[in-house]
């Protein structure tokens, strides 16, 4: 296992769910963290929690969809935080589960801007420095939805299919450099994901996971950590992880009492 001690890890969408779980996993491994999200108060609470591991944390309030702000914010990182060793593109969301012909176009805009454009803006700024320094690892959090479309998933599935294609393209374009690219593509993970999808409808969100044991954010974070701690000559390009109760994007076994 390769050490990540004192490596600088930038995590987008770090205020909750998989992003926050990754922050905890990498803090325990001795990494230094740049935590990125729109909700600064959540980041600061997390940073306070991570002090128990003795790790250094820099909180950056940032909307990854704002290209101009992304550019200025990353270029103005304090000098000790300039050289990002590991980028975890976790920021992403789903909005709605409607048929495409009745869907809210604003929901489409938000998914496309966050899941595709946000990932591109961040990676485009950080990848050249990784190439220049001769080291780095880009982790894109995709989804089973990028491999298999499901009813009502239309645009969300399309954005995650784009993440899959972008991860493959990045790997091809970085061939010949030591920079690694990994896509970690989970199925059902119990986080705030469904609450966001259903615009805060907690009851409807809870029904998504009713009768099954879904993945946890910590399950996914452990896998991300594993990928980044392989020896430099090993690159885990793509990894699909599902709960035992889930066989595909649409096949789920639910237990009844």
TrEMBL record:
<protein>
    <submittedName>
        <fullName>NAD(P)-dependent oxidoreductase</fullName>
    </submittedName>
</protein>
<dbReference type="InterPro" id="IPR036291">
    <property type="entry name" value="NAD(P)-bd_dom_sf"/>
</dbReference>
<comment type="similarity">
    <text>Belongs to the short-chain dehydrogenases/reductases (SDR) family.</text>
</comment>
<dbReference type="Pfam" id="PF00106">
    <property type="entry name" value="adh_short"/>
</dbReference>
<keyword id="KW-0560">Oxidoreductase</keyword>
<dbReference type="GO" id="GO:0016616">
    <property type="term" value="F:oxidoreductase activity, acting on the CH-OH group of donors, NAD or NADP as acceptor"/>
</dbReference>
<dbReference type="InterPro" id="IPR002347">
    <property type="entry name" value="SDR_fam"/>
</dbReference>
